[in-house]
Every structure is written in structure tokens, then in C-alpha cells.
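To: structure desk
From: M.T.
Subject: fold request, one chain
Message: Could you run this one when you get a chance? Sequence is below, nothing fancy, just the single chain.
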Amino acid sequence: MNGNAPVHLCDDFRMGVSCLVLAFSPTSATIRVTNNQADETQVRDVFFTVYERNLPDTFETQTKYAAGSAQVIGLKPRQSAVLTATLPSCFAQLDVYIGPEVNTPPHAAYKLLGAEHAGGPTFCNASSPASPAPTPTSGSGTPSPTSGPAVPSPVPPPSPAPTPAPGPAAVCEAAAPVLSVTSTATPTTIAVTATPSWKGTAGATITWGDTTSSTLSTPGPVGHTYPRPSADTTYSVGLTVNAGGVMCSTQASVSVPKAAAVCPAGRAAVLGPTITIEGSMARVTFSLAEGCSGVEVSLATYMAPSVAIAYPQYLYASDHPMTAAPQKFNAGGPYTLTAPLPACFWQVDLALGQVIDTLTVDHLYGSRTIAFKNGGSTSCPPH
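Reply: Done. C-alpha cells follow.
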């Protein structure tokens, strides 16, 4: 605010709640209160109460001016609300504090966000006792005789009792704020749509979970977009309607599951394949990427014509019989497959799908190949 803002109305930070003066005039004051807590259980009730001052600096004679006071019940963490209080036509005190509501100050010091004297030009309920009319006297100082019987003065009829202003609960029941929330997900974003409704001509504020807000003059859908998180997330949205200075609030939420992982295509689904030779046994370890299921993987060993890559190669062994389907693997691991090696030149192939009986230049695993290794020190017998 500027230099015209009162100096004591929002000069403290209590129980995680901060306060900012938005407007101040001889007849009203508007503030924004924010619950800065991160813990979702730390909900705060905040009151902006106007007290009529009946005597100078005497708390005991102050009375709550219900028609001008405002409140927000259930201010959730990272949520803000705007409160407007109206002043009576006499001296008043404005207090903003953490609940419960106090009808007569003072407040607990650790809950008071600020206070300010305002209004005027006289104290509230100020009246002078009526003085008796002087008795007419003669020049000697004795009462003058009356010229006739006394005529009683007419007694005015009693004024009707003022109708009490409706309490905050009744005001909010009449405003009937309602909020529904839906979401639309893409692989990278979450679009949350809030659809508020309320009765009357009051304005409203939508508060989003990331501390931003949207101001509405009439009911209608309003949207907000978030980056898509890597975990299941619940998005909470608040609606606050300013019904004549009474802040009527409600909330709604929508839960969005994390994005489902997509299994990579082809051999990219197999992670960290490693071939090790342990004596006359070939052993491979590997894992499957997130989102994968039912991926067939085979291990095969071949008798080769040389230690270098050459063909034809003849199947020596595999991790499963040729008459059976390959094993199927799901996301996770590591998994292990083993197969024996021939006592001559060999090649080890880890591949997607079923094994091949004889490898030739025209009949290879090709793009199904995950990993391979060659070795051996002697020629294989003729096949």
C-alpha cells in the first residue's frame, strides 16, 4: 500500500497468517489475509471485527459492530481471502486476528495481526442526561403562580426495535456458494476447471493450490493449468464470496493419477543387458523398462566357424526348449538367463522373441538382437 495506509492494522505475522491492507477510507477498510502454512492440517479462522468505542480507551465498553465485521472460516494453507469491514458513524476500533471470534477485546497477543482506531466524530452511544426545565420565578425569587392547571406533555409512541442484522452463517446460507472441480490430463499438463455458483450480486475469488487466484464478478467456469507431476496428486480449489463484508468460503478438489509409463518399442525395452562367461556357461542379466509387460526374451548359444563373426552358425543350446515359447518378462528386474556353451568357437545371442535354429547371412536376428558375444579357441566339428 501507499503512505495513506494505517500503520497498525496489518503490522504482525501470527500463526503463519499474514495480512495486507488493500484499501482504507473513513467508511470502510479492505484487507487480504493469507495462510502461509505448508502443513495441510493448519487451517485458520480469521476475523476482521469492528468494535464501537463508547468511552476513550476502555476495552470493556466496546461492543462488536456486527453489520460491519467480516470473517473467513477455514482458511486453508496457501489460501488467501479478501475481507472488507464497514465503519459506523462514530469512533470505532478495527481488529484483525486469528479465531475464535472475540466479542469484546482485548485479544490474545499471539493471535492479533493488528488494530486501528477509525471513524468519528463522536463516541458511539454518546448522550447527555436531560436537564430539568427551570422553574419560573418572580422578581423576588419566589415561584410565580401558575395561571391554570398543568397540561401534561404528549408522550411520543415508542420507536420500533431495530431489526438485528443477520449473522455470518445466515448471510452465507443466503449466498449459497457451491464449487465443483474437474480435470483434463495430458502427458505434460493438468488442466483444472473450477465451476462456481452463488446467489446475489457479490463478487468472488477462486484460489488455486499454487497460491494464484482468479477474481470473478459473476458465476462461470474458470481454468488453471499445472505441470503434470510424477506422482498421484490432489488439486484443491477454494471459492470465497464477499457477501456484504462476510466472506463465505467453500472448497472442492479433484485427484489425478500419475501418468502411466509407456513401454519403449523393440529392444529399447530391455535395460542394462550384460553377458558374462562362467566356465562353460553363458549368463545374461537384464531389466525391463517401466510400463512393459509380457516381453519375450531368449538366450541362445551357437557353434561358430571362427572366433570372428562368420556364418553359418548352428544352435547349440538355449534357455528354453525350441518346442516351448520364450519366457515373458514385465517391468523391473534384474532377470537372469543361462545356457551352456560348446567346447569350440561360439556365439552368444540375447534376442527378443523365439530363438533361430541356424543363423545364416540371410537369416539373422537383426533388429531383435539385444546383445551378443563371440569366443572360443578351437574349431567345431563338422555339422
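Reply (cont.): The chain is about 0% helix and 45% strand. Let me know if you need anything else for the meeting.
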